[in-house]
Design brief:
Layout lengths: L38 E2 L5 E10 L5 H11 L1 E8 L2 H9 L7 E5 H9 L34 E13 L22 E3 L3 H11 L9 H14 L3 E4 L5 H5 L5 E5 H10 L3 E4 L7 E7 L7 H11 L2 H10 L15 H4 L8 H6 L9 H13 L1
Parallel strand pairs: 2-3, 2-4, 6-7, 6-8
Antiparallel strand pairs: 1-2, 4-10, 5-8, 5-9, 5-10
Helix pairs in contact: 4-5, 5-12
Main location: periplasm
Subcellular location: Periplasm
GO molecular function, one term: polyamine binding
Length: about 375
Amino acid sequence: MNFLKGTGKYVIFLVLTLIVGTIMTGCGSSTSGDDDGSKDGGDGELSGELNLFIWSEYMPDTILKQFEEETGIKVNYNVYSSNEEMLAKISAGAAGYDISVASDYMVEIMRKQNLLEKVDKENLANIDNLDPEFLNLEFDPDNDYSIPYMWGNVVIAINKDTVKKDVTSFEDLWDTEFKNSLVVLDDQRVLIGVGNKLQGESMNSTDSKVIQKSKDLLIDLLPNIKAYDSDSPKTMLINGEAKAGIVWGAEAYLAEKENPSIQTVLPDEGSNIWFDNFVIPAGAPNKKNAEAFIDFILKPEISAQIIEDFPYANPNKAAHELIDEDVMSHPAVYSNEEFLKKSEVFRDIEDAILEYDRAWSEIKQ
């Protein structure tokens, strides 16, 4: 499957006010650290801190503790719930983050806005573990600013014990059977994109008429929506509060593990396929620590261990033989070729993002 997709341009109306402090004190002595602010214990070993900014439920605490134990670097951990929230905070100069995770289209946005440092791939001894299919994609040719972390999809999950309707399409979720019983992602690009798909249009459409129609469709869906949740939509599926949902594939997989009544549906229309990547914000005070962390995650055994907790699709080819076969073969995680061909990767949509913003505000008002 060729995942190479086109990406466009994007206009961000945010003022870049990055104010990042750099700490240059040595570890246990007055020796200065490297130019990027990472502390050096005097023998070339890294120490100090790493300020990680990442999606919630996306990095196991056990992995962070292992990294701390192996490197002596203390990890400070903060989370966000959307690409847009992450962008806004980093654009506004929040907190001097050293490393974050950005999806495909967001990498291009941040790169064009000069919000990212170039990654020194000489510091990534394990980069060859990545499947070349996930490198050099159009949103970041040569991977100068991003390193693949995870990839995945958006699917429908249903409770087959309580759902009587035969669900094969996003359109089926508009049925009155689902009144006040859907959990959906709190993500405007995904949901408006679903509306676009139902019109036979691209999830990346910039046509005002298409966006407006998608808004109307989603307003019609409101009586069926019980909750918006991008962090842990599986919870409501597991405990029975929701009959069905539009969720991340890994969440559908985890819900099924907890409640065998949950079933994954790959919608007939196709869906969103996304690629998440490590990025280093401009001015990161501990850039070398960030690169050390990326290299640590690229170890096959570490990458596979992450999948045990968060079973998304993994671009680390060397880790595949260490991952449970149930994950590798499950349609919620590794979907079939037909579904992937009908699905789309989000692109920059230029000024049209403002129309998406307005539509989303009207849907959720």
